Amino acid sequence: MKGRSQRPEEIRSAREKGGSAVAAKLVVAYIRQLIESGELRAGDRLPAERELAQLVGVSRPTVRAGLQSLATVGVVDSRRGAGTFVAEGPPLFGVNPLALFSALHGIPEGELFETRRVIEIDLAGLAAERARGDELAAISEEVMEMFASIDDVHRFLIHDIRFHRAVAAAARNPLLAAIMEMVADLFYDQRKQTVDRWRGAPQAAEQHRLIYQAIRAGDVGRARQEMDAHLKWAQEAQEIEVRAVPHRDEGAE
């Protein structure tokens, strides 16, 4: 990647404020600038962690934290043994029109899951029809990562979101993928508030494995059925988590 632009003044000034959260945002801002300026495009490999740390002026752990934030919202894709790449899907950078709608009107969990079923059942069927080898590999990798992170629910949740993103990419309909991405972003914001109480990671990992197997087999009907069953189960699990959250007035007695 030749002729990288200099960091803008706002990035330099933000660095002076200090703090790990601010520092991680510097990494996000720097990569966002490279993408918006056209210096990085979909599929391009990002500089190595060490180089990014030098370019932004932060530590390597801070670079990793920034990259994880970008991966969560679909801006970058980390590939084991290959590096970190700009994702092929639509990067949101936190500007999600549904987030404003949710803030103004609220979106109940039931409506969110209903929306997910409408979109993601069809995406699973399309993925079973259209998925190529590299797309199947991406879905498979997220399944393996879920099984590997069963004891870390927050890490599991990230790979859960990335699994559904990989299925959407395999459907090869960018518009549907963009809509799913916005809905998934809202889901992640809701889910991370209650996931500490969750004990269903082993069941969820197995359900995702069954979805993957159906897509790999090209079985459209089974892929749709497995996705539908998973989303219904996930909705019930989240409703249990929400009911288990103590109300503030209960702790004041």
Query: How can the largest sheet be summarized?
Result: 2 strands, antiparallel
| Coarse shape | globular
Q: How much is the radius of gyration in Å? A: 19 Å
- Percent of residues in helices comes to 55-70%
Gap from first CA to last CA? 60 Å
Q: Any idea how many domains?
A: 2
CATH architecture of the largest domain: Up-down Bundle
CATH topology of the largest domain: Four Helix Bundle (Hemerythrin (Met), subunit A)
Secondary-structure element order, N to C: HHHHEEHHHHHHHH
Strand order in the largest sheet: 1-2
Strand content: under 5%
- pLDDT averaged over residues: 82
CATH class of the largest domain: Mainly Alpha
CATH superfamily of the largest domain: GntR ligand-binding domain-like
Describe this structure as you would to a colleague.
The structure is a single chain. With 253 residues, this protein is mainly α. The protein folds into two domains: 9-86, Winged helix-like DNA-binding domain superfamily/Winged helix DNA-binding domain (Arc Repressor Mutant, subunit A); 97-244, Up-down Bundle (Four Helix Bundle (Hemerythrin (Met), subunit A)). The protein contains twelve helices and two strands, in the order H-H-H-H-E-E-H-H-H-H-H-H-H-H. It has helices at residues 9-17, 20-36, 49-56, 60-72, 97-105, 109-130, 133-148, 153-171, 174-191, 201-216, 220-244, 248-251, and strands at residues 76-79, 83-86. A two-stranded antiparallel sheet has the order 1-2. The protein is globular and about 50 Å long.
